[in-house]
What does this fold into?
Amino acid sequence: GESVGLHLPTLSVQEGDNSIINCAYSNSASDYFIWYKQESGKGPQFIIDIRSNMDKRQGQRVTVLLNKTVKHLSLQIAATQPGDSAVYFCAENSGGSNYKLTFGKGTLLTVNP
Amino acid sequence: DAMVIQNPRYQVTQFGKPVTLSCSQTLNHNVMYWYQQKSSQAPKLLFHYYDKDFNNEADTPDNFQSRRPNTSFCFLDIRSPGLGDAAMYLCATSSEGGQPQHFGDGTRLSIL
It folds into this structure.
């Protein structure tokens, strides 16, 4: 289920390093997962998605891994850049409806030059 | 070329004074959503439309209403805003289930 928190988990990395952001999802019946990037003052921006019949999907500099056994999703960002600094949310379809997404808490990624 | 456009970006209203937030889309998507997002929290779904079919979340207060006069436009009406309604309101669209939702940049609502 969705939990409410006042403090986001944070991840701080050096420019050029790889970043891994983790997410535990709640519903074993979810079959679609998505990662969003949200910069300050903007709406969430789609990064990459994955369906439950896959365990890995790659995009440009990003890879999503899905482990359905332990209900875990991760986002890997290669050669992290200062422009990658943002809050990252995972989301799953849920509630018996493919149209609705349930968002995870979010992780604040800070990239140090 | 913005695809989901929210107006205004910032809205200030008085306690108890009705306010309407607007969203338009150029994607011709069937589904439109309204989310509330408070500081350092995840977006929380208020309701969504599949075409003209309105779907309210069980925990969305009655104070929040929505209208979708046509495919392109959707409105969020807050009948009597309270201090707790100060938040970012996000509009999103999707073509169908199992597809990404596309978000606007939100309207930040302040209550005086």
